[in-house]
Design a protein that fits this description.
Helix content is 38%, strand content 31%. By secondary structure, it is of the alpha+beta class. The protein has a single domain, classed as 2-Layer Sandwich (Yope Regulator, Chain: A). Helix 1 crosses helix 3.
Length: 157
């Protein structure tokens, strides 16, 4: 595993998995922030609002993960209903899953790929981002109705 290295200009050098992520994002013209050699932050706006994504690469395990979320945070009294909704959604999901941070009410979607003894391609990374964005988009309105409209999960989904 390569560690984070700085060149003479102070630029961060990343590992191979993160280089593939960066190349795909650069190809789409997306602006992103490299937080360290293993973590990249991307924000995309659409008609429903601002979505935040984090790619995390672990070279030692040949593992890449994307985590996507959108605010606002779920009120305390609606977290159990959201947890039920996310469980219902996850039961039907083929790739990735939603989770809820019960501490602050943050809803997240995550997907990952293990590329041990294989090769990560830009298309695979693009698919991870697309699938994550699609899941966030598809369930945005029902989840917001459950979180803020007192609609029960079985009715909203």
């Amino acid at each position: 595993m390569m560690d984070e290295e700085l060149d003479d200009t102070g630029a961060v050098h990343t590992d191979a998995l993160m280089d593939i992520v960066r190349s795909m994002l650069d190809g789409h013209g997306y602006a992103y922030q490299l937080l360290d050699a293993h973590t990249l932050h991307l924000t995309l706006r659409n008609k429903r609002g601002l979505y935040t994504f984090y790619f995390t690469a672990d070279e030692s395990r040949d593992f890449l993960r994307i985590l996507g979320n959108y605010g606002p945070y779920v009120p305390t009294d609606r977290r159990a209903a959201i947890a039920e909704a996310l469980t219902r959604i996850n039961a039907r999901s083929a790739i990735g899953n939603f989770d809820l941070d019960f501490t602050d009410g943050e809803i997240r979607f995550r997907a990952s790929v293990d590329v041990e003894e294989g090769l990560l391609s830009g298309k695979m990374v693009d698919n991870m981002l697309g699938f994550t964005m699609n899941a966030l988009e598809r369930f945005h309105d029902p989840l917001m109705r459950i979180a803020f409209g007192d609609v029960e999960p079985e009715l909203a989904l």
